[in-house]
Amino acid sequence: MDRRLAYAGLVSTAFIWGATFPIIKYTLPYIDPLSFLFFRFIIASAVLFPFVIKKITKKNAIFGTVVGIPLFVGYVSQTIGLQFTSPSMSGLITGIYVVLTPVFSIFVLRSGRDLTKILFAAIAFFGMVLMTVNSTSGEFFGNMLTLICAVSYAFQMVYTEKFLKDGDPLVFTFFQLLVVGALSLVFHPSALLRFSSLEIPYVAFSVVFNAVFGSAIAIWIMSASIKRISAYLSALILILEPVFAVAVSTLLFHNSITIPMMIGGTIIIVSMILAIRRENSKR
């Protein structure tokens, strides 16, 4: 994958993922989180299956399965968290993984200790605290679940870079998706009884949109981009995800934005922008 194509793909991925926050938020009153994830990721893996069936290797299967575990934790905590917090808040807190990724890279990829990167992570965390200072108990619970999601996503991106150096991004993605779908069913077997939820047009649209665009295509683009330009640079470009989440939530669903949320969100965004500028200055 060409670097410019990777950049364009990641911007598109950020937009898709940003849009999925409000879409999923308004799906959850009609279907429980784990059932939603089961249908979403089983469909997503089924979409990729015809393209990978002749490419599957033991190495890609093992590594994709391992990395699928933090991806599962991330999606479960994020989706359940959306029941208790707004799409814009969820998008902003999830965006902390953009700053956490280079921090985890220091330890997982042995990329060298960089105190400035750690400082950016601390500033972003402070911004998240400001965003939740006036939350109700329910909102705080949702925000903390979403923070777990951010940590899980950061691990997923770093280990993708670690394991995908000689692997096939498409096959690697397929096994990640399959693991998320399978674990959703393991932890919630009654999901098999929720097929009737797909008869609701909005639920069916949400599941299919998130399966095809938000999972199969987006996660494949992310995996391929990480292999081409590193987890850190991929995460920096995905800074646009929380921005798109807030924009879509505000424009389409008229979600309110409080002053503490604006201040905390601004701190998070600024820390990410400074990280981007610093990385670009090295090139």
Query: What is the number of domains?
Result: 1
Q: Rg, please? A: 18 Å
Listing every helix as H and every strand as E from the N terminus to the C terminus, the arrangement reads: HHHHHHHHHHHH
The structure class reads: mainly alpha
Helix content: over 70%
> What is the first-to-last residue Cα distance?
20 Å
Strand content: under 5%
Could you say which overall geometry the principal axes of the C-alpha atoms support?
A: globular
Give the low-pLDDT segments. none
Q: What is the number of helices?
A: 12
Q: What is the average of the pLDDT values?
A: 85
Largest sheet: none
Tally the beta strands. Answer: 0
Q: What report would you give on this structure?
A:
With 283 residues, the chain is mainly α. It has one domain (3-281). 79% of the residues lie in helices and 0% in strands. The protein contains twelve helices and no strands. The chain has helices at 3-25, 33-52, 58-81, 87-94, 97-108, 115-132, 137-163, 169-187, 201-229, 231-237, 240-253, 259-281. Helix 1 runs parallel beside helix 11 and helix 5 (97-108) packs antiparallel against helix 6 (115-132). The chain is globular and about 50 Å long. The chain starts with a helix and ends with a helix. The mean pLDDT is 85.
